[in-house]
Amino acid sequence: MYKLPKLPYGYDALEPYIDKKTMTIHHTKHHQGYVNNINKVIEKYPELGDKTLEEILVDLDSVPADVKTVVRQNGGGHWNHRFFWEIMAPPKKGGGGGPNGKLAKAIASAFGSFESFKEKFKKAGLTRFGSGWAWLAIDHDGALQISSTPNQDNPLMNGKDAILGADVWEHAYYLKYQNRRGDYLDAFWNVVNWEQVAKLYAQVAL
Ligand code: MN3
What we know:
By secondary structure, the chain is mainly α. Helix content is 47%, strand content 10%. It contains 8 helices and 3 strands, in the order αααααβββααα.
């Protein structure tokens, strides 16, 4: 059975960029909801509990048809949020700034510059119609790619490895930013945990 992971920092730790109330509801209600729903599926199909969440998400075709959509939405939701909390950090504890070393070079070479990368990532989040995510991922050839996915889909489901992601569901920003998704995405850079992104990159880079 899956458990809601503890947030690696306080609910108010990403202030003023992401507010305490949003973080509290996002973690204790939304993320908890995905965990509860995926656990209901595992009660019905215990064999799914023998697989890791990653193994399930990369092979959704093998999930029983009657629960495939629930697994996609809630298994995806659990994976995405677990990932999201880790790729952020409080501004006072390393959040913000930019990438270093190999990752910085790879981003500059793939997107022209760090500034241009940020613009393209923001555009991916802004142009996602409705609910979804913006991602930086690595494809099978080791190339960095910016993409966006609807709902709780993620790069894993498309055979790629995510190293950075921004939740662009309204529940992630509406209390503070209302309709200004672009302002939320600009603020997001102040809380990115580049150390964690670099760690993920080192794990999957060829
Ligand atoms: Mn969310």
